[in-house]
Amino acid sequence: MSDHADVVDAKPIRGRVGRRLGCTGAAIAGVTLGLVVAVSAAVLIPVSTCACTTPLDLVVQNYSHQDASVSWSQPGLFGTPLRGLSGAAVADGCRTLGAGLRSGVVEVSVHSGAATRTLQIHVRDGLADSPAAIVVGGDGQIADPIYGARAAGLYQQDPLC
């Protein structure tokens, strides 16, 4: 009978230890799963859920009769493409193109029939808190960005030439 009593006493101890490890393992798994879901949600949530709430940060005035292609890119988390911003659009001949961007430094490339320029513009940061305007001249040459009051007056949608 003493052998039987030892077995009975040993089972509850192993059961309690097994249950404690099981609860600890479940807690660790729950926390890990929560972190994975949170990081995944942060990566998948769009930067701007509504384009109508995005302020106008870049204006391209095309005084040329030819279209100009405009592309932009901005690094994401820790300088990686993760949640970075990139896009492209066409500034039609004799028209204005406007784009909303995220704050920080944005690399903008403009290509017209006569020239190509890559510029870095500041969007709502310590160096510039007003929109940047890039002018494509009638000859297709691309000017440096303009900030401030001069850029604010360039929002017309009327033909420029």
Could you characterize what this model shows?
29% of the residues lie in helices and 29% in strands. The strands form 2 sheets. A 4-stranded mixed beta sheet has the order 4-1-7-8. A 4-stranded antiparallel beta sheet has the order 3-2-5-6, with no helix packed on it. The protein folds into 2 domains: 45 residues; 102 residues, Transthyretin/hydroxyisourate hydrolase domain (Immunoglobulin-like), CATH 2.60.40. It is α+β, with helices and mostly antiparallel strands and 161 residues long. It is built from 2 helices and 8 strands, in the order αββββββββα.
Record keyword descriptors for this entry.
161 residues; alpha+beta; four-stranded antiparallel β-sheet; Immunoglobulin-like; four-stranded mixed β-sheet; 2 domains; 8 strands
Q: Which helices and strands, and how do they pair?
A:
Elements: H1 2-44, E1 58-62, E2 68-74, E3 85-91, E4 96-99, E5 104-111, E6 116-123, E7 132-136, E8 146-147, H2 149-152
Parallel strand pairs: 1-7
Antiparallel strand pairs: 1-4, 2-3, 2-5, 5-6, 7-8
